Amino acid sequence: MSGFADEVTPVVLAGDEERNIARTFGQLGWAREVVLCDSFSSDRTIEIAEAFIREIRSLEPSREVDAYEASFIYAIGGRPLRTSLYPPRAVLLRKGGFDIYMDGHCQRIRINGVVERLNTRIIHDDRKSFRRFLSRQRKYMREEAAKLRTADPRTLNPASRIRKLRVVAPLVIIPYTLIVKGLILDGIAGLHYAFERFVAESMLSMELFRRR
């Protein structure tokens, strides 16, 4: 990537993109330079971009630090949620300081050294259609079910252990997201998120029953 980064300068065209600009910059951590062309944004696009750039420029990682992770603000169709089930992810990685492996339907990153946290949160704006969501979840949950059936129970986290019970996760996911996490206060966007989580957990449950 170093040779590629030396030859390519990403140019980001933006106009009132406060919901997307941090996520976009987070995907360009490999670049030595990023050019932002703003079309007179009237929102917080420039403020967010400058905050992200300042933090990246101020980083002085020690030799023990192999990654920086960021928390996410999950959004549905541009509407940010107060919280979600989306965990922090490593977004800046030191070359040679990590390994990538498959965990069910996900690619996971195993960091060899110390992981530190960025202050700037990245917005994950989910705009896919429900049809596309269903198509992806069918594939994801087949792979997740295969993992849960073969995994050593001692290696599973609490969420995976609940999922392996097959009937519990679909029953608890809606009250957990709406009441415990407070997404009922986010209106239609919160209901949409909770419903998608219910559908995903139900699909996983059916896969676990089907291939027992």
What does this structure look like?
The relative contact order is 0.13. The protein folds into two domains: about 1-125, no CATH class; about 130-210, no CATH class. The strands form four sheets. Strands 6-3-9 form a three-stranded mixed sheet, with no helix packed on it. A three-stranded mixed sheet has the order 5-4-10. A two-stranded parallel ribbon has the order 1-2. Helix content is about 45%, strand content about 20%. With about 210 residues, it is an alpha/beta fold. Helix 4 crosses helix 7 and helix 6 (about 170-180) packs antiparallel against helix 7. The mean pLDDT is about 85.
Summed up, the domain count is 2
**Category from helices, strands and their pairing:** alpha/beta
Beta strand count: 10
Radius of gyration, CA atoms, in whole angstroms:
19 Å
Poorly predicted spans = none
Mean pLDDT: 86
Terminal CA distance: 43 Å
Shape: globular
Give the fraction of residues assigned to helices: 40-55%
Give a brief rundown of this model.
The chain is 43% helix and 22% strand. With 212 residues, it is an alpha/beta fold.
